[in-house]
Amino acid sequence: MVEAHNIFPEKLPRSPSRRTMVQTHDIERPSKALVEGLSKIGSATATGELSRMGVSDPQILGPLPYTTGKSICGPAITLQYMPMREDLYPQEEYKDPEKQLHRHALYHTQPGDVVVVDARGDMSSGVFGSMMLTYFQGRGGAGIVIDGVIRDVEEASKLDIGMWLRGVSPNHHTQTNIMPFAVNEPIACGGTLVMPGDIVIADDDGAVNVPIALAQQLLENASTHVEWEEFTRLRLLEGGDLRKYYPLRDDARAEYEEWKKTQG
Q1: What pairs with residue 150 in β-bridges?
Q2: Phi, psi (deg, nearest 5) at residue 220
Q3: Do the beta carbons of residue 223 and residue 37 sit within 8 Å?
Q4: Is 3 among the domain residues?
Q5: pLDDT tens, 104-120?
Q6: Which helix (H) or strand (E) holds 153?
Q7: What digits encode the pLDDT tens for the residues 37-67?
Q8: pLDDT above 80: residue 15
Q9: Number of domains in the chain
């Protein structure tokens, strides 16, 4: 069997994983202040502001919230699946486990990380099961976004992580059509390009990928948006005119500025 990782020789790995020849490289993580700030804006505001910044559709389409009420924001560890080739990868669940790349993606987990998986929309092989996800939570992982499925959902749903999935399956990760192929390389998850270290925001509206180069500008733009929306929501609850307050019209600006002063 070919040594797994990012299977092509020119993509030789840079930082070692455990006890084997398999090596994968870690991601560069953004500052905690940036992630914490973006965690307050929500996926809907993020998509709106990113659209105005030139990113027409940052939504990761397909994975849906399986842990309603949960919201996450963190840097992306990426995992890519490809169509199964039996000469490259064993289908047995426990054969050579340290050569299984989905494990090595989780080995990189640091607190707050999000694992994003391009599983090709496959609905028959569970990318992770409850044991793997228990390990992920123990390492401090925030959540998973998978263009595919997991298994052991009853146990997995008891964990304190967010999960955005296409569905569930009783099958293990290579049982049918796909195999893990690369870790922390660019992937297409739900039709969206996700680079390792991009920031993912996910909540009950869905999952959104924030290009890391735009993250600081998004935070600045979105923080202003969130603030005036809070003011607008209050005025609408009081019976205010929708035409005046949403979006905030120029003749409401003075009122908004006065309100801001009262918020400290």
Answers
A1: 168
A2: -65, -45
A3: yes
A4: no
A5: 999 999 999 999 999 99
A6: helix 153-156
A7: 999 999 999 999 999 999 999 999 999 999 9
A8: no
A9: 2
Whether residues 18 and 63 share a domain: the answer is yes
Q: What is the token pair recorded at 66?
A: 């399986």
Same-domain pairing of 239 and 118: no
Instruction: Supply the range of the domain harboring residue 235.
Output: 217-262
Residues 71, 43 share a domain: yes
Measuring CA to CA, which residue among 97, 45, 93 is closest to residue 71? 45
The mean pLDDT value of the chain amounts to 89
Tell me the pTM: 0.84
Lowest mean pLDDT among 4-18, 27-41, 152-166: 4-18
Long-range contacts at 24-29 (CB < 8 A, ≥ 24 apart): 24/101, 24/104, 24/105, 24/107, 24/108, 24/183, 24/184, 25/183, 25/184, 26/108, 26/184, 27/75, 27/76, 27/77, 27/108, 27/184, 27/196, 27/197, 28/197, 29/75, 29/110, 29/113, 29/197
Q: Among 65, 78, 68, which residue's Cα sits nearest to residue 26?
A: 78
Task: Identify whether residues 206 and 246 lie together within a single domain.
Answer: no
